[in-house]
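Question: Hello, beginner here. Any chance you could explain the protein record under this note? Any guidance would be welcome.
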Amino acid sequence: MPAAEESRTAAETATQPACWRRAVEAAETAEGLPRPGERVAVTGCGTSWFMAQAYAALREQAGQGETDAFASSEFPADRRYDRVVAITRSGTTTEVLTLLSALRGRTPTTALTADPRTPVMDAADAVTVLDWADEESVVQTRFATTALALLRAGLEGHGLPPGVKPVTEAAADAELALTQPLPAAVLGAEQWTFLGRGWTYGLAQEAALKMREAARAWTEAYPAMEYRHGPISITGPNRVAWIFGELPEGLSGEVDRIGGTLIADSDGDLDPMADLIRAQRLAVAVAESKGHNPDHPRNLTRSVILTD
């Protein structure tokens, strides 16, 4: 039998190392990136919201200023910020455009988008177009991580938090993550819980979303230290706990004791964004094993455009 054709999601996932390196170059000339000391809010919907969460925590950890993250539909419009950054692949998402319109003239806004032919080009004060990271798949992979890579690169000139690598080194780790075999216990599991601390909690949220979108899988995500306050009750044989970044002391033993499978970078060598690529690959593999098309998940479209 001929080999199955590679999905667009899988093909786009594989381009992330190159996209991240290009994002480092783009960050050097991008307009409207947050400056140290500014009070900033980052916003988006779905995957973009989780990237906003990751960047907000990373920026605060770097000591570069108070940074909040909100789903665009839940943004506290009366709260004052020096700058609002919106992440929107399509440039057409209703909640993002509504928020940018409400902020016009009173708060400087910056948007990261993949499509320069969309309304966000006029809605934001400054726009960085990452059209070379756009995707055909409905499921976001490379645009989201490339937007985060650009924002992360923008922090580098003023100092990253201890233990966080420059984006170029993360891209090298991403190349490894694309070739490392996924454990059989992870591929064949019935349930996955993703965990993170600080900026990697947003990555955990995104990993869980990828599994839900592409594979229709039972997945959850929590801050790593909250896992033992209830969520651990669902872990057991044929179920996975996967942590991005630092492994809390004692957690490995607890997962082993109840028969679960723990996935963690115990040596701390793999950048958490590169580890997210492994979770993206898992989502595609599980989707295909179930006969689902990862490029076109059920009930989802490229952009959510609300009508009156």
